[in-house]
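ERR on first pass: missing label on line 2. Operator R.T. fixed the label and resubmitted. Corrected input:
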Amino acid sequence: MSSATALSWFARHELRLAWREWLAMMTGGRRKRTRVAIIGLIIFAAIMHLPAWAVIGRYADVEAPLDKTSAIVLTSTIFLAFALMLSQAIESVTRVFYARADLDLIMSSPARLANVFSIRIAAIALTVSGMALVLSTPFVDVLVLEGGARWFAAFGVVIAVGITAAALAIAITIALFRLIGPARTRLIAQILAAIIGAGFVIALQIAAILSYGTLSRFAVLTSDAAAAFAPEADSVVWWPARAALGDVGTLLMLLSASLVLLGVVMTIFAPRFADTAASAAAHAVASRQSRGARTFRKGSRQQALRRKEFLLLARDPWLLSQTLMQLLYLVPPALFLWRSFSDSSTAIVLITPVIVMAAGQLAGGLAWLTICGEDAADLVATAPLSPSSVIRAKVEVVLIAIGAVFTPLVAALAILNPLQAAVTACCVLIGAISATAIQLWFRVQAKRSQFRRRQTSSRLATVAEAFTSIGWAATAALALAIPTVAIVSGAITIAILAATWKFSPRRA
Amino acid sequence: MKSEESALALRGLTKRFDRLAVDALDLTVRTGEFYALVGPNGAGKTTTLRMVAGLLKPDAGSVAIFGIDALADPVAAKQVMAWVSDEPMIYDKLTPLEYLEFVAGLWGIEPKVSQGCAHELLSSLGLGPHMNERCEGFSKGMRQKVALAGALVHDPRLIILDEPLTGLDAVSARHVKGLLGERVRGGCTVIMTTHILEVAERMADRIGVIASGRLVAEGTLGELRQQNGHTDTSLEDLFIALVDVKAEAA
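pass 2 clean. output:
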């Protein structure tokens, strides 16, 4: 087989794997569901046009030359997309290094590793850009329908941004390997991905709170201060915005620049990819030493189970990055809370739904890890404990962890507004119990390492978890603002929970 | 035989998946004996043992462990037994010592007793230098040994092992065999499935041959030879003869 043939064969292989992985993610690994998944995706994409229209429909008429405020808003939106893509790309690259599924086979083959890994880098770029294209389609569609065909250029910007994000992700991850070694890179890269993904939005929100006393990010973007600091109209900073508006020359420059960057990354890093992957594999073999021998602790069987769960949660890098993400999202409301101590702004009510929503989401993840993600399922099942006491101990772990994370916030709120604190505490508890109950009804035994895929095991459970979190967050906000409407919102959320239970496999 | 005298008594045990996996199986294992369950792939060995361990619910039949009805009172039955599967299930993020502390806690063993026992077990299995390392970098053999130590740390009266020697090197396999032999000499009952017939031949007091979910022969090696009219054949020859007969009958 010639070198070119071998490369095209490997490219096809990578694309096939990427396609099947995506399909498995959509269908939850059940091949019979492909048609249902495609129909569901089309319906979802169609529905997504409504919020897209609500969010950016008003910007469809924006034309070049851009005024500074429009340029800032558009560029920030593109930068936000870039941050999210970079976050996803860092995760993909880390996965490639640490998942040994086919690395042994590839590295022991007579293929030229630099070429093979160049294709793998290109596949990462393609996957990131492809996903971004799918997600951006409703927004670009709205802009095209409302503002004309020139907005099709936005797809080109998405591709350029995706390629750039993938190239930077590879450079960042390999640099991390060189700087801190494979032992720490995995965790740091995951935390970095979480911070990059959420960081931009949160930074804007913090700036808005500190400068304008509001949670709205647009307050910063549309402010005179931002316009004063922004560069001139011919600056390279505005190229993505200009390209999105249909400036073909700028778009071609952007695409060329991103491809050149990817080429440079391939040339520099593809030969080192093999070394890096080998270091990661060696790290997987090397054991981590825990602190020395200590005495075994006394306690009941349930206590032993709870201790084990807490120990595993504390040592779970995925959970750490997820929790960090949730906590990062709580920084703006916490800051807002702190700022509100000095005045009696009614806007402080906004904090409650954010806290309740975050509690529901975090509880869902924790519940999956403790209830479904049991690596020694046989051991626990053959232990002399009734299944109900095992479940009870695991649920307790979830609620204790939620309590530990959210009690300080609720306590701070209690100093300012005891009634709001009480409502928040109740809804945090109900939200956490609801998310845990959904995980219990839909539980499927899995390995903890499958945490990333937890949402694919049951679409219904995922949707129900999201809707109940939103439902309890809305109920909490309404209970403080319009109590009578809160009864309706609460009833709807209970109805969603009841319907979820009715369709759950545990009931069947 | 009264059920109290036997470590395990199965009566009419039946399990059906898409086909009949275990077919009204009757089996008795005496207290303090080393019992090997052998049979071809898909014969129903693992399904039988998983039902005994409480991991699968039988469709029909009864399971008695030291006279305890395991279906009516599973917690009491589990208190006296241990299960080790062929695929070692341990926690990557725990060290062997932490794992054993957890297992001992689940079985409600006094920490003073379990701590000494855990150190002794890990050392005897050659895991002494690794007892404070997280299991994530362990080989399959090391993981198998950690799982085995977990099964022994609560000093069970009945140990059920599904292919315990798979993935172990010769030295480790000898360690494990020695450890199991010691337990049997101490009065513990061991039931083990194995594909390595030489192990069954050398270690087991009695051997049960299972095919298509039914016990087709049982006894000591001598008894099995006698039952089949051979005087000087290996277990392997006997096994092939027995399984072939069963396959022809089916």
